[in-house]
Each structure stands twice: as structure tokens, then as C-alpha cells.
Design a protein that fits this description.
alpha/beta; 444 residues; four-stranded antiparallel sheet
């Protein structure tokens, strides 16, 4: 297939492929970036169009339906994606003049269809451009779930869950924050270098570098592509990791020389961070169900210059007969709803029924993990999601069913919260981090 050089055309093709095949967004986008001949500038536009259109899909369809003379489900798949991407540019991309977005869409409509399709595309988009102020939503007072879901582009079941948990105003703020472009965080590998050296390295390339909000070893760097393509990444000077995820290792409160188990380890971000905090002294056993994923743990440990991590294949829901350890980490498989800034397609991929299935799995893993904690040792339960079923309810269940454990306070410098001292929920609209949950238990 001839390489595509038009970023808007490639965005339409990518989005159509995603919808037809149900593949993961990041994998498909990376594949097309490798296979097609886009300039660096066009790569940025292409990525923004794909991510933004996936993120705002429900909102875009709702608006298009107010101006289209034809039902959206009757449109050719490529034309629907074309209308979505053009509308995204008109409403959400300040750097693209609306007239240019319309003109480019009309040209592509001729490519994907015929002159009649081009005229239809032009008519719909010109109407939206002229009548933006007439776009209406259900009242947030009368129907907060539909208002938030349509305006901020989330499935109703997710919005309903968050409205019930935090109220409509907080749910709206959370959804709005979830739609923001994520910041690029990196975790400095203090076994090899220092935050000051990494900061200087990127500032020397013209990047804007800021300290992490909570952790001295975390930096925020803009533009993000410098972090992804820099040779220091391959040399193990830093590891790409959101600060909320990096906080989990601190929650376990490890010390050099300890024995630590990471029961759901791949790709090894938390295991390597724990090793860093332990000054590469002690023992870390990293387990995972899949041998090929353990290869990522080994690769990352080697790259970062870590010697204390041993990997082993194993099912964390089963009794693995491990000797007691001072620290045990269960970074559990979860619905991942806290990561939607980085992975906007999750909102369309997950279903309500999966949440309860995942909660059952998480309980099985914690049930087994409790057997490996030495008296006086700590057990950390963490997820990158924001559902009560997978977070607070699982933590409460654990304490109710394991009377030899109690909640153990998190470090005093952790972000303040009205939650118990042993648990914390990180929220994008409050902490400017990915959504994340941690609970720490001590065994007596």
C-alpha cells in the first residue's frame, strides 16, 4: 500500500480501522506512524486528530446529529470519520482555522466518495460553523448523567457511577480533566543519575522541565516527543511513568535489604522503582502470568542497571508457596479508567459487567497475597481505576475478612485527603495526575 502523506486522510483511515476491528488505539497509531511518510509537524496533527476524535466521539456524534440531514448510522464509515475529525478541528483545535478544516474535509470527501458526498460534507460543516451557539444539551440539573456524558463524551454508565460517588459538579470536573492532553512524566533513575542532571539534559534541548508535584525523582517535560526519542531512555537514565503510579512505590515504604514480592509485575515500572528506593539492595521477586511479559521486566531492569529483581512466572490467584516477605505489592489488574487521558479508547472498550468480574479477581489475588506477608510486614493494594467496586470496596472487604491485618498509614507527605490514613485516591482534576488508588495494610 502506498504511504499516505496527508495527516487528515491517515486519521480517517486509522479511525475507520479502529472502529471496524476494535484494536487498541496506541498500537494502531504507532503502526501507522511507522508505515507512513508524515513530517514531524504532520505527525503531531495526525496524533491529535486520532486521539481527540476517539476521546470526543460521543460529543461529536451528538452535535453532528443536530445538523446532518441523514442519520449517522446510514453514512459510509469513512465519511462519518471524516465528519468527526473535521468537527473536532472546528470545535477543539484553536490552531486550525475552521475554514481550513472545512475545505480539507470537502477535498477528502471527494477522495472517499463523490461530488454529492463532498456537497453534503460541506453543508453539514458550514452549518455547524455558523450555528455553534445553537448546540444544546440536556440540563445538568434535570439530567446530570446525560448532560455530562454528551458534553464531555463519556458513556452514561461511567458518568452515573461518578455522579453517585462524588456528585454532578465533581463528576463534571473529573470528566473535563480526563479530556485534557496528559503531561509527560518521567522517573529519574537515581541509581545512575540525578534529577538535576536530567533536567539540565532536556533544558539544553530547549525543553520546558518542571519538578513533579510530589516526588523529587519525577520530572514533567514538554514537548513529550523529546522524552520518547532521547537516547537517555535506552540508556536507563529515566523511565516513563505517570507520577500517580510512581507514588505507589513510596506507599509500600520499602527499605534497603528487604524481601519484596510484586505479584502482578509486568512491565516492571513499580518493581524497578522499588529497587531504586531500596538502593538496589535486597530481593525483589517479580511475578506475572505471562512469560513474554516478564521479558519486559527483565529488559527494563537490565536497562536501569538493577540487579536485585528476579522474575518468575506464576498465577497470583493461586497459593505459590512463597516464604514470608516484609513487603508485598498487588498492583492489580483493573478496568484502567484512571488512565483515560493517555488511553481515551478505554471509555468505549470497557463494559459495566467487567467491573464486578475484575473485583472478584482482585479479591482472589489479595487472598493469596495475604499468605506471603511476614508479621509486621506491609501489603499494598493499588489500581489505576476510579470505581468503588474495585477500590474502596475491595480494600474494605480485605480488612473485614483478614482480621490479622489493619490499615497502615501512608507517608505523612502524601496529598491530603478526607479518606482514612491508609488509603488514597488520586484524581486528575484535584492532583493533575492519572486516576489512581492505593491502600496499605500491616500484618500483626
Amino acid at each position: 500500500m502506498k504511504p499516505v502523506t496527508n495527516p487528515r486522510q491517515l486519521a480517517v483511515l486509522t479511525l475507520h480501522e479502529l472502529e471496524e476491528r476494535g484494536d487498541f488505539l496506541r498500537e494502531v497509531l504507532d503502526l501507522h506512524l511507522r508505515q507512513n511518510a508524515l513530517s514531524v509537524l504532520d505527525q503531531g496533527l495526525y496524533t491529535e486528530l486520532v486521539y481527540g476524535t476517539v476521546r470526543m466521539r460521543r460529543n461529536l456524534d451528538y452535535i453532528l446529529s443536530q445538523f446532518s440531514s441523514r442519520p449517522l448510522e446510514k453514512l459510509d464509515g469513512h465519511i462519518l470519520q471524516l465528519l468527526r475529525t473535521a468537527l473536532y478541528q472546528i470545535l477543539y483545535l484553536d490552531r486550525v482555522p475552521p475554514a481550513a478544516a472545512v475545505n480539507e474535509a470537502v477535498k477528502l470527501a471527494r477522495h472517499f466518495g463523490h461530488e454529492g458526498v463532498a456537497k453534503f460534507t460541506n453543508a453539514v460543516l458550514r452549518q455547524v460553523q455558523r450555528k455553534q451557539n445553537t448546540i444544546f444539551y440536556p440540563s445538568i440539573e434535570d439530567d446530570p448523567v446525560e448532560h455530562i456524558g454528551l458534553k464531555h463524551s463519556f458513556p452514561s454508565w461511567i458518568v452515573k457511577m461518578w455522579v453517585e460517588k462524588w456528585g454532578s459538579k465533581e463528576a463534571a470536573r473529573l470528566c473535563q480533566a480526563m479530556n485534557e492532553v496528559p503531561q509527560m512524566h518521567l522517573r529519574v533513575n537515581t541509581l545512575k543519575t540525578s534529577p538535576a542532571e536530567v533536567r539540565s539534559h532536556f533544558e539544553g534541548q530547549g525543553a520546558t522541565v518542571q519538578a513533579g508535584r510530589y516526588l523529587p525523582e519525577v520530572l514533567q517535560v514538554r514537548p513529550a516527543h523529546l522524552v520518547v526519542h532521547d537516547p537517555w531512555l535506552e540508556q536507563g537514565m529515566y523511565y516513563i511513568q505517570d507520577e500517580s503510579s510512581a507514588l505507589a512505590a513510596h506507599a509500600l515504604q520499602v527499605e534497603p535489604g528487604q524481601r519484596v514480592y510484586d505479584l502482578c509485575s509486568a512491565p516492571g515500572g513499580k518493581a524497578t522503582h522499588l529497587a531504586q528506593l531500596m538502593e538496589d539492595q535486597g530481593q525483589i521477586l517479580a511475578l506475572d502470568m505471562k512469560e513474554n511479559r516478564l521479558g519486559l521486566v527483565k529488559e527494563n531492569a537490565a536497562k536501569l542497571g538493577i540487579s536485585i529483581i528476579e522474575t518468575r512466572q506464576g498465577d497470583a490467584t493461586q497459593d505459590l508457596g512463597l516464604p514470608p516477605a516484609q513487603r508485598v505489592l498487588v498492583d492489580a489488574p483493573c478496568s484502567g479508567l484512571g488512565t483515560m487521558r493517555h488511553r481515551p479508547d478505554i471509555r468505549w472498550r470497557k463494559k459495566p459487567g467487567e467491573i464486578l468480574e475484575l473485583a472478584l479477581l482482585q479479591k482472589k489475588i489479595l487472598q493469596a497475597a495475604a499468605n506471603y506477608v511476614a508479621p509486621g510486614g506491609l501489603l499494598l493494594y493499588s489500581t489505576c481505576t476510579l470505581t468503588a467496586d474495585e477500590n474502596e470496596d475491595v480494600a474494605t472487604w480485605f480488612l473485614d475478612t483478614h482480621r490479622d491485618f489493619q490499615g497502615h498509614p501512608l507517608p505523612s507527605w502524601f496529598p491530603a485527603s478526607p479518606e482514612p490514613s491508609w488509603t488514597r485516591t488520586f484524581l486528575p482534576h484535584k492532583h493533575s495526575l492519572d486516576g489512581f488508588f492505593v491502600s496499605v495494610f500491616i500484618k500483626y
